[in-house]
Specification:
Blueprint lengths: L4 E4 L5 E6 L5 E11 L5 H11 L9 H10 L4 E9 L2 E11 L10 H14 L3 E2 L2 E2 L1 H17 L4 H13 L13 H6 L2 H14 L2 E7 L3 H11 L23 E7 L4 E8 L9 H12 L5 H9 L3 E9 L4 E8 L4 H16 L5 H18 L3 H14 L5 H9 L3 H9 L2 E10 L5
Parallel strand pairs: 2-8, 9-13
Antiparallel strand pairs: 1-2, 3-5, 3-8, 4-5, 6-7, 10-12, 10-13, 11-12
């Protein structure tokens, strides 16, 4: 992929063009950055849903959908993403490139105008958001928040993180809380929206077969709305010492236990040793050949699943498994043994090589996904260094077994969370 080109608009919005002839589509992502703060996270999470209900030009969702369909089935979605201790509100616009459509030459312009229209010209009633839209989206958002507990794997991971980071902003759930949601109304959400648009650091990414100068001119013309000084998003707190391991048991009406271990690695995507951590995590619990899968699930038959994953901006690692209630102690013991083995260098050269090839393949697969490439760029900018695929492969290839062991020695268990049946696990 060609080098990314950056320009800052007069209103402070950062625009990044990623020119590439690989794709027949153009992907546009508009990201707003917010501090992950308990007082505002619910408003930020609800806002995109309300804005997508319609605008001055397209007063209903149906009219908006019909307009997008005329752009050859263009898709416009919004999502809430958590990276470290920041919440990102992400709008994604997926368009066919008009060079593949005879007689078309303004699909990108039309798509960007719709996105701008939705953001800056919402449907209003008595000078604030339309009350019916806010009420309906609050009901839907309540289902989203409550829905977490129905996905027991995701819920157990979220609960472990909340307990582990209980004194840190990272403990805040990206969709907010029911308590905050209930007190929101059309007027308070509209006040927040005006501040959100004015002060949130914003970046617009466009990836596809694009002429940079023409695209910048187009974006500058469309996204020229007034904004104010940007609010600062504080850096993510990474180095938190572990004094004692915290054990948390939660009793729910469940048929299967969920055991989640939260570790502090002290390393993030910004650190040179991150690639050694990536290999460590891969050997431990990412692939079918990994130690957790082989030793906890296959050999001991203790878990329905067992894996590990990293939070690359917070410096955390989570080990998650689904087990019979009675197997809590045994599973915990075997997981801890895998962690101790890693620190002692007790992993085979075959494990090391297979993991290297697995991670290398993941990086190469990202090259075929416009969204993955933008996500990698955003991660890189947050870490202060943007890697190309070639950079990533070179960094990965330079990691040695000694590097993996050195990283392993610094990893500290912080919290053990266990979801068990009512009445306890015994």
């Amino acid at each position: 992929m060609a080098t990314m080109i950056h320009k800052r608009l007069a209103n402070g919005m950062n625009v990044f063009i990623h020119p590439t002839g690989k794709f027949k589509t153009i992907l546009v992502q508009l990201l707003f950055h917010r501090q992950l703060h308990q007082d505002e996270v619910t408003q930020s999470a609800l806002l995109p849903a309300v804005l997508q209900r319609g605008s001055g030009k397209y007063p209903s969702r149906q009219q908006l959908v019909l307009r997008l369909e005329k752009l050859y089935g263009a898709e416009l979605t919004a999502d809430i993403v958590k990276k470290g201790e920041r919440q990102l509100v992400v709008y994604t616009l997926d368009l066919v490139h008009d060079q593949y459509l005879p007689g078309e030459n303004r699909l990108l312009q039309d798509g960007l105008e719709i996105l701008h229209e939705l953001l800056t010209n919402p449907v209003l009633e008595n000078g604030v958001f339309k009350e019916e839209y806010v009420r309906q989206e609050k009901e839907q958002h309540e289902r989203v928040i409550k829905g977490l507990i129905n996905d027991k794997i995701a819920y157990s991971v979220e609960r472990c993180l909340q307990e582990m980071c209980r004194q840190e902003p990272f403990s805040v759930f990206k969709y907010g809380t029911l308590e905050k949601l209930r007190v929101l109304d059309a007027a308070s959400l509209y006040d927040f929206y005006r501040r959100f648009l004015r002060e949130s650091p914003a970046e617009l990414h466009l990836i596809g077969d694009l002429d940079a100068e023409q695209t910048f001119a187009l974006v500058e013309d469309i996204f020229s709305f007034d904004r104010g000084p940007e609010a600062e998003v504080p850096p993510t707190l990474v180095h938190t010492p572990v004094e004692n391991v915290r054990y948390v048991t939660e009793e729910l009406d469940v048929n299967q236990g969920k055991l989640v271990l939260g570790f502090r690695t002290g390393l993030t995507y910004a650190d040179a040793d991150y690639f050694a951590l990536l290999l460590y995590n891969g050997i431990l619990g990412v692939f079918p050949h990994s130690k957790l899968f082989q030793n906890v699930r296959e050999k001991a038959s203790l878990a329905y699943y067992a894996y590990s994953r990293l939070e690359k901006h917070k410096g955390l690692m989570l080990v998650s498994s689904g087990i019979e209630f009675k197997n809590y102690e045994k599973t915990l013991e075997i997981i801890r043994k895998q962690i101790a083995d890693m620190a002692a260098g007790n992993f085979s050269q075959e494990d090391f090589v297979n993991t290297y090839h697995g991670l290398r393949n993941q990086f190469l697969v990202e090259e075929d996904s416009p969204a993955a490439l933008i996500n990698r760029t955003v991660d890189g900018m947050l870490a202060g260094r943007v890697w190309t695929t070639e950079d990533l492969l070179a960094k990965l290839q330079s990691v040695t077994r000694d590097d993996v062991v050195r990283v392993a020695e610094e990893i500290r268990l912080d919290t053990v969370y266990f979801m068990t049946k009512k009445g306890g696990r015994k």
